[in-house]
Structures are given as structure tokens and as C-alpha cells.
Amino acid sequence: MRDTLGVLLAGGAGERLFPLTRDRAKPAVPFAGQYRIIDITLSNCINSDLRHVYILTQYKALSLNRHIREGWGPVVASELGEFIEILPPMQRVSKSWYQGTADAVFQNIYSIGSEEPTYVLILSGDHIYKMNYALMKQQHTESGADVTIATLPVSPNQVSQFGVVEVAQNSEVTGFVEKPKETNIRSPFNPDMVDVSMGIYLFNTDVLIPELMKDAEDPNSKHDFGHDILPKLLGRYKVHAYNFVDENKQRALYWRDVGTLEAYYEANMDIAAVAPTFNLYDKAWPMRTRAYQYPPAKFVFGEPGRTGMAINSIVSAGSIVSGSVVRNSVLSQDVRVNSYADVDSSIIFSHVNVGRHCRIRHAIIDRDVHIPDGTVIGYDPVEDKKNYFVTPSGLTVVTRDYSVYENPVSPDFMQVSEGW
């Protein structure tokens, strides 16, 4: 993989994950207790021996930048020319912020060219999956393809969420339609399924750069790989599909877009389950993150009615479950759950203090929140809506400034809220 440059797109605003993305970039949202969402893709890179990676950031990137700098800088060997480097919008070839996925890569065309890679692998920083990119590159070179698209089989009723890829028996791509309402296209490998794009593209550099330049000059383009770049390549270049090989090694393929609060919540609940579908404990495919210096998790008190315990849950380092019960939940670092509290089916971010006699259910608690004694969350949606953010499905999200939801005054809040 030394001749391959990874370009990881991590600049999306993440409106559908609001309010978790109000103060942080979507890839920086915590996942499975101690990780950030972006750690999953970066772990795939390292496990695939891809050690030349640009991360393109844009919105609210401070915590993401800090996480990459302190957690991922030491993973690669700079003296060997390896790097995981953040590239913010530099407006070197444009006066605007990134206008689409293709425009984001185009605006960094000089940085890409300076590395002189033979291949460029385009990745997204907000999906949960395990994939060996080296296998994709192997097929790419052996097939003589100019572009390879990673594909995933999905049910026909899901096609409106994806770019649909029409694939021939020899894996050559003969058609591409971005998010159609429905399609008659079926996978040649499974006639009950449809092959869709995973948002992972491997380009020969001498194909990518001219196409990006041509797209940048097109006033009618959305400057997006799915909408514009890929459909225009067909018939002009050799485009192949790479059928997703899942390193998660379960019977069903695991790939999750955690772009909505509900999808994010369900992915975390799976991690906390007795037999999770996504395996974090596979030593052959380790997940890496920034290491924090916290003491081990602690569980105290064993009195009747005041026993510190966690059942079917993930409890991260530095957390103390003190005379309380945590069920089916994910606790990040440095969380304290005080006596007689009950936490069920919830995600609690770092530095949260849950007061005595609190009852919390089906909720996400953002970092640095103090829950006063006796607070009840997740049991009465009508009451919750008076103080917190509640999704249509009834998931309650509590942030440090949750009172703003009652009387929002920030123009930024209003803009994002309307988008939600």
C-alpha cells in the first residue's frame, strides 16, 4: 500500500446527528465508550497497512483535530515517510468551502499531487465496518481497472439511500444511479439484492486528477462523486466493483451508516449486547483510539437496594458505578453514577455525573452534563420535550445547554434545527 494515498472525508456538518454535532464534527462523535466514529475507518487503514492518509476536515473540527493529533500521530512512523495528516479547507484553488465530496478532494489536489501516489483511495469517516483495503487494491491492479467502487448488497427497498451500481458478471460496472426511488437492477451475485456503493473509491491518480479538474469547471455539477464523477466515467474508463469482504467475520455483512441519532443509538446498543454483531474484541483486527490515562472502572457498595453493578453494558476507564444499577448501556470515560440511580438502555458520554435516585432510560447524555438528584429522563416524552431534545422515535438527547431547546435564540441553532 506504499504507492496508495488515503483521502478520508471528514468534513460533513452532520445535521442528522444534531444536537450531538452542534459543537463537534460528526466523525468526532464518541462511539462504543472509548472510541470516536472516525477511529473505525482509521483502524481499517492501519490494519490494511495504509499509512499515508489525509483527513479532510471542515465544520467544528477542533475536538477532531485534537483527537487525531494526540491519538493517531504516534501510530505512524514519520521517519519512514508515514503520516496521518489533517487538511482543513485552504481555499488554494477555490474561494469557498467544500461544495461536495469531489470538490473537497479537488481543493486538495496540490497536496495529493505532492505525494505522487499511483493510487488514491477515497474514504468516509462516518461509517462502522471492518474492511481490508489491500484486498480491494489487489483486485483493482489485477483487473487492470482505472477505478474500483466498493459495493455492498442491500435489499431493493433500501436503494433510495445509496448509489446503485449495475455490475456485470466479470465485476465491470455498467451503470450507476445515485439514490433512485426504486430500481429494476439486481446483483449478478444475488438476484434478490442490489449492489450499492459504500462510498469507497480507488482511483488511478492519472484518472482522478483530470476528472476532478474537469468537474470543477462544470457549472452544472454538484461536485459529488456519486452524482457527477462516477456516472461520467462509464464508457470512458474501465470501472470495476469490489464486492465487500467483511473482516468482522460474522454470518451477515456488517456495515452501518450512523448518520442519524436512531442509527447511532442502535449501533451502540449492539456493542453493549451479550453477543454483539460488531466485534471489538477481535485481536486479529484491533480497533485503535486515543489512550487516556484514567484508572480502571470501579463498582462499589453491595448493600441491599444499593449495589453497584453493570449488566450487559460497556463501562469505560475512570468510571465509578456507586451503589447504582446500569443495564444495557454504554458509559464513556470518567462517568459517575451515584447511589440508587438506575440507567437503562442509554449512552453516556465522558465526564458525566448522574445524581442519586436518577432514572434514565433510552437516552443519550452528552459530555460534561451534571444530572441533578432525582431527575427522571426517558419515561415521559411530553415532560422531556420541555427540557431536552427528543426525536420522533422517542430517543431523548441531553446536552450541557439543554435549556436552550425551550427558548432557542442562536441563529446557528435555528438553522440546524430546521434542517433536522
TrEMBL record:
Glucose-1-phosphate adenylyltransferase/Bifunctional protein GlmU-like C-terminal hexapeptide domain mapped to chain residues:
295-398
UniProt: alpha-D-glucose 1-phosphate binding residues: 98, 163, 178-179, 197
Q: Which Gene3D superfamilies match?
A: Hexapeptide repeat proteins, Spore Coat Polysaccharide Biosynthesis Protein SpsA, Chain A
Does the keyword Membrane feature in the UniProt annotation?
A: no
Under the heading InterPro entries, the entry gives: ADP-Glc_PPase, ADP_Glu_pyroP_CS, GlgC_bac, GlmU/GlgC-like_hexapep, NTP_transferase_dom, Nucleotide-diphossugar_trans, Trimer_LpxA-like_sf
Cite the annotated pathway.
Glycan biosynthesis; glycogen biosynthesis
**Superkingdom assignment:** Bacteria
Entry keywords, A to Z:
ATP-binding, Carbohydrate metabolism, Glycogen biosynthesis, Glycogen metabolism, Nucleotide-binding, Nucleotidyltransferase, Transferase
What does the entry give for GO biological process? glycogen biosynthetic process
Question: Pfam families under this entry?
Answer: Hexapep_GlmU, NTP_transferase
This enzyme's EC code(s): 2.7.7.27
Enzyme class name: transferase
| Domain Nucleotidyl transferase span(s) in chain numbering | 6-272
GO molecular function (one): ATP binding
* Similarity comment: Belongs to the bacterial/plant glucose-1-phosphate adenylyltransferase family.
Subunit info?
A: Homotetramer.
Quote the function comment for this protein. Involved in the biosynthesis of ADP-glucose, a building block required for the elongation reactions to produce glycogen. Catalyzes the reaction between ATP and alpha-D-glucose 1-phosphate (G1P) to produce pyrophosphate and ADP-Glc.
Q: What is the recorded name of this protein? A: Glucose-1-phosphate adenylyltransferase
UniProt lineage:
Bacteria, Pseudomonadati, Acidobacteriota, Terriglobia, Terriglobales
